[in-house]
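Appendix B. Chain record.
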Amino acid sequence: MPRVNRVIGVCMFADISGFTSLCETYALKASEESCGTEKLTTTLNKYLGKIVEDILKHGGDVLKFAGDALLALWVSEGNCKDTTLLINKAIICSIAIQEECDNYLTDVGVMLGVKIALSVGKMIVTHVGVDESKHFDLSGRAVDDVNKAEKWAEPGAIILSHMAYLNCDQTLFLFEIMADGWHYRVAGAKVEEKSTASTVHPT
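Structure tokens predicted for this chain:
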């Protein structure tokens, strides 16, 4: 029987843009060469590997791959402070992913990018199957919110749900509000000014 866990956490939806063009280009090459499909797999694994590596490095778990997209999760201990720290981690992770994976030129000239959406809230994690065949389904309000946020994302963008924006540390990042007045795009991380030993005064 499926096992169900109810969690509070941060949900990331990352959608690869350029995926269809890449597949079509490699399909054409496959008709001309015998290794087109193999090269497609290698390219996708390399690109997705960068995204997965960043997620794991920042404490997240990749739950599910769905075609040209993936779902990742940061599980909170349930208190406000921990949830805020996790949202901050997920935003920092998203910035790192965009720095590595935006405008990614493949060996066949197709440019790949990634659209990222983040939400926070209650979710239901359903564990289906056993051992090698095990997979996870994610549902709940936060999943609905991340899907809505993704609709506002363009390649290279990081979009926050309204609750994710309200619960993150807004002093750490730069934001732009979207046209709906509800979602927010992360414009970058704020850079702290470093203090110097001496101060130069204008003359």
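Further analysis of this model is presented in Appendix C.
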